[in-house]
Design brief:
- This protein has 282 residues and is of the alpha/beta class.
- It folds into two domains: 41 residues, N-terminal domain of TfIIb, CATH 2.20.25; 233 residues, Rossmann fold, CATH 3.40.50.
- Helices cover 37% and strands 23% of the residues.
- The protein has a seven-stranded mixed beta sheet with strand order 7-6-5-8-9-12-11, with helices on both faces. Strands 1-2-3-4-10 form a five-stranded antiparallel beta sheet, with no helix packed on it.
- Helix 2 runs antiparallel to helix 9.
- The relative contact order is 0.15.
Length: 282
């Protein structure tokens, strides 16, 4: 069911052509002009900042074996992305990863010769980055200097004010610099088939839900020239094999996975479809 909202404007394009949709138990605000879906019931910015700083964390943190298992199983995916970047901005170059979590990607990128820095609000994740010698700050407001590459890998959907975040990323880039954005593809067939049970529909963490159209709109709104936006499944057969191998290597209680976590991993491999966008600062 769709309900027209009075005085509701889209946070992405500013359009007043917005309606609410009931998505099972979740209310979404849908913009008929730019095709973005956003959570209609969002917490305050202060509550959001507190949540990501102190509460939100990807994966188990209490055992180093769990962290190392996570690092190893996504290694093929990270190498693939570094190769994509090298084709346009070969090392040495300055790279900023916004929403870097425990810094796995920038840790690999620096081995390829990139000068790296990360942005991550989670205190626990930043503490881990510090242990392995990575320069990571809490907020993009703390970033100084100009970069050749900015990456936002499954982080833009966590922004309660995504246009502000992308504009800040734009200002971090040198003219001719590139940004790579990866977000869940809310317009994918798997999302439409699975509905509220889709693995990447997480309204408690994801505030905006993008299609190709809406992602292109917000990138252009922030000032970027969009090079490409593609829908893809990031977890290919190589990543699946890498996950199985990591599970075999990091055996024992410390890195044990529950049946539910293994099932979630299989569902993500099969149904997790993302949008991969590359854009340039003029």
């Amino acid at each position: 069911m769709e309900i027209a909202l009075q005085n509701a404007k889209c946070s992405i394009c500013g359009s007043a052509n917005c309606v609410t949709k009931r998505f099972q138990s979740t209310r979404l605000l849908y913009c008929e002009d730019c095709d973005v879906h956003a959570n209609a019931d969002r917490t305050s910015l202060l509550e959001t900042d507190h949540y990501y700083k102190y509460t939100y964390f990807m994966g188990e943190f209490n055992e180093i074996a769990n962290i190392e298992r996570m690092r190893h199983f996504r290694y093929p995916e990270r190498v693939w992305l570094i190769n994509v970047i090298q084709a346009t901005k070969p090392a040495p170059a300055d790279l900023l990863d916004i929403g870097c979590d425990k810094g796995f990607f920038i840790d690999d990128a620096r081995r390829y010769g990139y000068n790296v820095r990360g942005v991550e609000p989670s205190e626990r994740a930043r503490a881990y980055c510090e242990k392995i010698g990575l320069s990571v700050v809490e907020s993009i407001d703390e970033v100084s200097g100009n970069y050749d590459v900015v990456t936002m890998q499954h982080s833009l959907e966590h922004f309660s004010q995504p246009l502000i975040g992308l504009t800040a990323a734009y200002n971090c880039l040198r003219p001719g610099g590139i940004i790579i954005v990866r977000v869940p593809d809310f317009s994918s067939r798997w999302r439409k088939l699975r509905g509220e049970k889709w693995v990447w529909f997480q309204p408690q963490n994801h505030y905006f839900h993008y299609s190709k159209k809406s992602l292109g709109v917000i990138l252009r709104k922030a000032g970027f020239d969009v090079t490409s936006i593609a829908s893809q499944r990031p977890n290919d057969a190589l990543t699946v094999r890498s996950n199985l191998l990591a599970g075999s290597v990091f055996k024992g209680k410390a890195a044990a996975q529950t049946f539910r976590s293994r099932l979630a991993r299989v569902l993500e491999d099969i149904t997790g479809v993302e949008l991969f966008a590359m854009a340039r600062r003029p």
